[in-house]
Amino acid sequence: MEFQIGGRLIGKQHKPFVIAEMSGNHNHSLERALSIVEAAARAGADAVKLQTYTADTMTLDMDEGDFFIEDSENLWKGTSLYKLYQEAYTPWEWHKTIFQRCEELGMLAFSTPFDETAVDFLESLNVPAYKIASFENTDIQLIRKVASTGKPMIISTGMASIAELADTMQAAREAGAGPIVLLKCTSTYPAAPDNTNLLTIPHMEQLFNCQVGISDHTMGIGVSIASVALGATVIEKHFTLNRADGGVDSAFSMEPAEFASLVAESERAWQAKGEIVYGATDRETPSLKYRRSLYISRDMRSGEEFTKENIKAIRPGLGLPTKYLDQFLGKRIGRDVSKGTPVTWDLL
């Protein structure tokens, strides 16, 4: 199921594809947005991802009822949806500049469209892939529109049931989608590790016959690293210059040093998976000589009986394996030997 995004190979035979999600962390500053791109490049990100919408394409301009966030547990409580998206959106006229800076720094850049007009706009910029957000993973019209481009789709699965994901996958494939990656996602901000359920990753891979990754809203890197061990090929994390600077997503975003650690440790986790192997590897072979084996531990004369005082299981491992000790005890040696002689069958 290996495929490419902009020339980057994605699959289990390759290190994880790590995406830095800028979202609204630019805080309405193009200069800061470009600084985020530069920091992501230094941290080793494979790609930077934006979000493409306006407040008007997301919701209605209302400050009451269903359109006002009253949930005391919500990170964005006390504001309307419209004002939240006004604060968080990335101006469309910035996209080209940001994408060009990513290219200059050797990174890929793409975005999450939230309606069909955003797809048309992103197509004009020739993005190499599309991301579907968890809250849009049941928007079948949007799924079909994105799939019709034939480009790779990365779909977050937060909140979606198996039946809903089946509908989404069917719609995407019937509409001509390119390769699809599903991202295990928990749609809380921040998310808790004990509500992440990473064992869903291999199950999802088998169920939908596609690559699976993670969109990780937890703090730290532990959850993302664990996902690699379970088969994740793509990791997406929100990224900011400094959480203390504030911003709509800053509370659950990674800072540059943390992101660099994620990139390095996810690659180590991928390398460590390896394959099913028993016995000494090529690199371990020199260490075999430091196993325990049977050695003569006292000078012995021909005809003397082997006892636990004159034959011992010790390091190094150049004598017979220790499992043969009982076959020597009580028998006699056939020639004179000195202390430190490795035990061989011809001593009997």
UniProtKB/TrEMBL annotation:
PROSITE patterns: AFP_LIKE. Signal peptide: none annotated. The keyword Transferase applies. It is an enzyme of class 2 (transferase). It holds the Pfam family NeuB. Keywords: Transferase. GO terms for molecular function: N-acetylneuraminate synthase activity. Its EC number is 2.5.1.56. It comes from the Bacteria. Residues 293-348 form the AFP-like domain. NCBIfam families: PseI. This is N-acetylneuraminate synthase. It comes from Paenibacillus forsythiae. The lineage of its organism: Bacteria, Bacillati, Bacillota, Bacilli, Bacillales.
